[in-house]
Specification:
binds glutathione, 4-stranded mixed beta sheet, alpha+beta, Glutathione_S-Trfase_N, Glutathione S-transferase Yfyf (Class Pi), Chain A, domain 2, 2 domains, Glutaredoxin, Glutathione transferase, Glutathione_S-Trfase, single chain, 4 strands, glutathione transferase activity
């Protein structure tokens, strides 16, 4: 397997040309859960790409880990029609690359800046959730959950509603079509809406636009078909299990409000 992560300057032009190819197939190397692969899969589905999963299990992973660029998944493999393979590591990088390639990264530089801003605001919330709740110390969990639900998430939600409001009544974060920002925030809401009490500040009265964005994503025909598939059901259950460990009253049925 070609390892493209580190390359010589001479490779750079050639590899850059390969990123422009439109005849590629994709393979997403990740675990059997939605997790950090969810947004990437959604982009591949929305972009009608030719793609498949390469699953790793906790049993198979230790032997495979050293062969990955940075010892973590996801890693994306893109194979062109003539058999060249690009290897791309790191979730954010894969998401932005695919979004650009598949048409979900705005129509000009200014829209890109706005999409990156929306992503940055959302990412801060995800990092707080991940570090203080999902993998944070058990002893600090009650305090961390309180802070997340009373401050971090409600503050973000207000920012996000205002952000969409400034988009001239269009039901997207930026411009007039789905972008990575809409996909990323909707997937975040998929996690958070199941938490008890979140509907006190994410609801039709206080955040109609945020919910409209989620409706646009949830009712997309391609995405809906994928999410109704057996494999997505399995991946989603694995993600939900992580959450029910942290929130005793977690209700996954509240997440897919519109599907
Ligand atoms: N910096 C990486 C982190 C990804 C990450 O945390 N992956 C986890 C799974 S969600 C992983 O590979 N864990 C296995 C390990 O670290 O050995 C990224 O953004 O892609």
């Amino acid at each position: 397997m070609l390892q493209h992560t580190h390359h010589t300057p001479a490779d750079s032009e050639r590899l850059s040309e390969l990123t422009k190819r439109t005849d590629s197939t994709f393979e997403l190397h990740y675990f059997r859960s939605v997790g950090q692969g969810g947004v990437i899969r959604s982009l591949l589905v929305l972009g009608k790409a030719n793609w498949k999963d390469r699953f790793e299990t906790m049993d198979s992973w230790p032997a495979v880990k050293p062969s990955t660029p940075y010892g973590t998944l996801p890693v994306l493999y893109e194979t062109t029609a003539d058999g060249e393979v690009l290897q791309i590591a790191e979730r954010d990088v894969i998401e932005r690359y695919l979004a650009k390639k598949l048409g979900f990264f705005g129509k000009n530089e200014w829209e890109e800046i706005q999409i990156n801003t929306a992503l940055s605001l959302a990412k801060a919330v995800m990092i707080a959730f991940f570090t203080t709740i999902l993998i944070g110390p058990e002893s600090a969990l009650p305090e961390n959950k309180k802070k997340f639900l009373a401050e971090i998430l409600p503050n973000y939600v207000k920012q996000a509603e205002g952000f969409i409001q400034r988009n001239n009544g269009n039901p997207f974060f930026v411009g007039k079509k789905i972008s990575l920002a809409d996909v990323m925030v909707s997937s975040m809401l998929d996690l958070f809406l199941g938490i008890e009490g979140v509907d006190q500040f994410i609801n039709q009265k206080d955040t109609p636009l945020l919910l409209k964005v989620k409706e646009t994503i949830d009712t997309n025909p391609e995405l809906r078909a994928y999410r109704n598939s057996e494999i997505y059901g399995e991946l989603n259950q694995a993600s939900m299990r992580m959450l029910t460990k942290k929130f005793e009253t977690y209700d996954p049925s509240k997440a897919r409000v519109f599907s």
